[in-house]
């Protein structure tokens, strides 16, 4: 349902030990590190007293824990479509280790259509996030997800160009820090980004 007015807030999870160590985790189900718990707790006052009709989360532990710290006691709907990109054989690796893999150049040649070995392409991530957001009927909604997933949805919704980055595997010119927040509005089927 894409016609109803929607105010959608997207929140990236707090940091895990793998994030703090520079390892790419994708769908590997790591919990928050102490640093991530602190980040989520620090974000909670921003949403204190705000009313959300629905609160969603990726079903991965780091996103669920973030949601529970930011919105304590709020009913939470877990949806695997909000998961991070599946990095396949690259999960758990740091970027220099990825770059030594023989399949790395194949992936980097067209990451929108080609996934890492055993993983997802960005187009596949966009399709599942788009399907999720099109199921939202309207109102005030918050969702806890992941960096590449959120940015892929934005690229898909707004038609932003891919911009390959040196020494960074995902071709987006913008980053989203831990517990970073993105606010979107859908009015009459038209999306706008609010910062």
UniProtKB/TrEMBL annotation:
Q: Can you name this protein?
A: Alpha-ribazole phosphatase/probable phosphoglycerate mutase
- Coiled-coil spans in chain: none
> Which keywords does the record carry?
Hydrolase, Isomerase
Pfam families named in the record: His_Phos_1
Q: Could you say which EC number(s) this protein's record lists? A: 3.1.3.73, 5.4.2.12
Task: Please give the Gene Ontology molecular function terms for this protein.
Answer: alpha-ribazole phosphatase activity; phosphoglycerate mutase activity
């Amino acid at each position: 349902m894409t016609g109803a007015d929607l105010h959608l807030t997207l929140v990236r999870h707090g940091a895990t030990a793998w994030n703090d160590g520079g390892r790419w985790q994708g769908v590997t189900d790591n919990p928050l590190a102490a640093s991530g718990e602190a980040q989520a707790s620090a974000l909670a006052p921003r949403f204190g007293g705000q009313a959300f009709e629905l609160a969603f989360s990726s079903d991965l532990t780091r996103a669920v824990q973030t949601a529970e710290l930011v919105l304590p006691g709020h009913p939470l709907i877990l949806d695997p479509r909000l998961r991070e990109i599946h990095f396949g054989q690259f999960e758990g690796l740091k970027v220099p280790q990825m770059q030594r893999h023989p399949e790395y150049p194949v992936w980097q040649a067209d990451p929108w259509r080609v996934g890492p070995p055993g993983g997802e392409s960005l187009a596949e991530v966009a399709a599942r996030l788009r399907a999720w957001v099109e199921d939202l009927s309207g109102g005030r909604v918050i969702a806890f997800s992941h960096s590449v997933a959120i940015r892929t949805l934005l690229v898909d919704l707004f038609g932003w160009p891919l911009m390959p980055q040196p020494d960074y595997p995902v071709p987006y010119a913008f980053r989203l820090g831990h517990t970073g927040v993105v606010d979107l509005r859908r009015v009459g089927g038209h999306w706008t980004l609010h910062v």
